[in-house]
Amino acid sequence: MMNSSKRLSRRKFLKNSGAAFVAGAVSTACLETLTGCSHNDKTSAPPQKSIVSDSNSASPDAASVRFSDITAAANLDFVQRNGTCKRRYFCEQVAAGAVLFDADGDGFLDIYFPQPKPIGICKKDYLQPLKHRLYINDGKGRFTLKENAFGGMETDYGISAAVGDFDNDGHPDLYVCCYGKDRLFRNRGDGTFEDVTDKAGVGLGGFSTGATWFDYDNDGHLDLFVCRYCEWTVDKDDPCTNKDGSPDVCSPTHYLASLCVLYHNNGDGTFTDVSLKAGVGKVARRSLGVAAADFHNSGRLDLFVANDMGPNFLYRNMGGGKFEDVAAEEGVALGQKPEPLANMGVAVGDYNEDGYLDIAVTTFAGEPYTVYRNEGGKYFTDVSVPVGIAEPTVPMLGFGAVFFDSRNIGRLDLFFANGHVNPYIEGFDPTTKLKQPNQLFLNNGSGHFDWIKDALPANDVRIHKGACWGDIDNDGRIDLLVTASNDRPTLLHNDCPQRNWLMIQLTNKHGCCTPIGAKCIATIQGKEKMRVVLGGGSYGGDSDFRIHFGLGDATRVEKLDIHWLSGGKQTLTDVAANQILKVKEHV
Questions:
Q1: With 50 as the cut, is the pLDDT of residue 394 above it?
Q2: Cα–Cα distance for residue pair 252/344, rounded to 1 Å
Q3: How do beta strands 580-584 and 500-507 pair?
Q4: Which of 397, 419, 412 lies closest to 483, judged by CA?
């Protein structure tokens, strides 16, 4: 523990340690296309040629890309409070997110907002209770707050949520991560939920920031991985100071890092903590974003965990219920320096269409966001500079991050939700802002992402946190939901020109409506494109579980291969465009 007179706030620590990084981040970064970088691993992997060239050519249809703010018209114009008062508490920096999912089974995406609660001395400043919210989509562009959706059961300080059909009844359930006690709500199938936390044995205490459902042992039941941040509590909230001597929350390094937790689904409504046995509960880090996906094309689901001020985890699923952290040897533990970054949100997708999932990570202001290109399932290359992400993101602080096809042309673009965590930052750092615009980068198809500043509403400048994607009106265009700290959310409707599309709603043979890890490979005009049902991702909550393909001017998918986590495969041919196709795995 530091002496109180010398304690540094999080921002002061990162300001002092990150300034040197900013100066050299872009100019001295190791460029794979020029030098064949080492990968910060135990055995340096040989450089491989990218399947796409690194080009700076602009996206030709950028002028037609537009998202409009329909928050008020959708009846979502409420303030998601963060529980703050004159005394700021540590956990406020990471709150809060949201999830898009079909809670009532009517085919339209609904929205859940976890709710931070006033804690400590802030409790007396809130006369009305702050409640978590479920909004039901009427299918016509308007959402209605569902009263008593949780039977009056409230949560502790809600930060994020994870959706998964853990009991295979065809209804997506909800796990809420909190400072305090996490909660598991079972979906009754009618848009109402029952609290089964204690029965399930997943009421984890402490400071949870994110989670994902995934079936790590392929037994047909979704297991649960929970990110935890640090051993901070209200009682341990020590007084620290900002650079100018004003009171502020302490740096994360002032508190001990926490261990993440892996729960095995026993198949009877209960779970068992297998963290140590599985190999994921041995090293404590400050974990925020998490994604479950098959990064090695092994047929098993791995975990990528974005860690704040420490090396990331890439837990490779070795089979037999065991994981091994291969982040260092596969090149995703650190940034380009190389040094640990303040990693927060994570996006996953095959942006370069080579059949392997790539990773993008948001970081702190003064640090470029990172894009790790998957090199054939063997290792990753940091291509943040050549793909055009590094320099435009240096002034930003990001949480939410998603790969999605904004234009329905078959390319995965990148969206980042930005906003600082320090309300005093502008007083001592002129290079960044507290309230920040979000960023949309278009994939130009030649290995470069172009920042399109005019695509998003110019006045949407907030302290953004979570981000998730989904088609809220089933028109085939992907919309965005973004949350903001102590502010209203922003629902962004996709107004891009209508092109052809296909969405696939999958259910596996066990009845699970969120078959995380299922993979679809579509042959479109002779070219193969891969999309997966992702577990977790971004920050603060899950996105649409339906697989989406933008088809451009193609009116049919010649072939659609569906690879299930069980190892089964189904092939459909001559699939018509512009439909939501429901497919159940063959038994």
A1: yes
A2: 13
A3: parallel
A4: 419
